[in-house]
Amino acid sequence: MAFVPAPNIIMVEMRALRNGQQVENRVMIDATGEPQPADLSDAAIMCWNWWENTYAPLLNEDTRLVEVVATSLHEQNGPQFTYAPDTTTTGTFTGPALPNEVSLCVSLRSGARGRSARGRFYVLSISDDQRLDNNHVTDAVAGAFAQAVRDLNALIIGNGWLFVIVSYETNKAPRVGGPVYFQVTNAIVVDTIVDSMKSRKPGVGT
Fold it and tell me: Does the chain have fewer CB atoms within 10 Å around its N or its C terminus?
């Protein structure tokens, strides 16, 4: 797909390794102006610290954060910043973990209706002790993951930015005039059923 500029947008990729497999979470931030190099470094450091302090306690210890990459989507050859201060930041939830492809979906909601105005945040690991049964996590675990994403939203807003869903298409066709942004106003877990992210299986790909 050809590059389509998304003015003012910073794409932040939180890249990790789990059992040797590359996994990541990606969020879009509206910087409300053309992203400057300082914005990219601030966004990357903010997301690393959130991962370490808020997200890591919910993730299994077999998941290690490798780097956070912030990229300006304002133009095709916009600036990029990579933050990788150490090689020791891991999940801190101990005990056996479920397979790499097992995940939980946190739904990102905006004030608008329709699929284009919603996003998904798939958590990077689920531990055996976080299960209710073979197919569900506990309500407490689901609530904790949703709250962690809401906390990230609060950090983004506190920096004067917006956590957004960037929609490039509508009715299966590119949007005329470029992408539309929907501000994330809430993060919820619709159900506690675990999901499958097959691309996260070892040896399959990112």
Answer: N
Which residues have C-beta within 8 Å of that of residue 15, sequence separation ≥ 6? 22, 23, 24, 65, 66, 67, 68, 69
- Show Cβ contacts of residue 116 under 8 Å, excluding neighbours closer than 6 positions: 165, 167, 169, 170, 180, 182
Helix axes 139-158, 37-50, angle to 10 degrees: 160
- pTM passes above 0.70: yes
Q: For residue 68, how many C-alpha atoms fall within 13 Å in the half-sphere facing its CB?
A: 24
User: Position 18: which residue type?
Assistant: R
CB of 18 within 8 A of CB of 125?
yes
Distance (Å, rounded) from C-alpha 166 to C-alpha 81?
20
Residue 44's φ and ψ, nearest 5 degrees, are -65, -45
Determine which helix (DSSP H) or strand (DSSP E) holds 43, and give its type and residue range: helix 37-50
Residue 70 has which token pair?
Answer: 């912030």
User: What tens-digit pLDDT sequence spans the chain (206 residues)?
Assistant: 678 899 999 999 999 999 999 999 999 999 999 999 999 999 999 999 999 999 999 999 999 999 999 999 999 999 999 999 999 999 999 999 999 999 999 999 998 888 889 999 999 999 999 999 999 999 999 999 999 999 999 999 999 999 999 998 887 888 888 899 999 999 999 999 999 988 888 877 55
What is d(CA 95, CA 1) in angstroms, rounded to the nearest whole number?
41
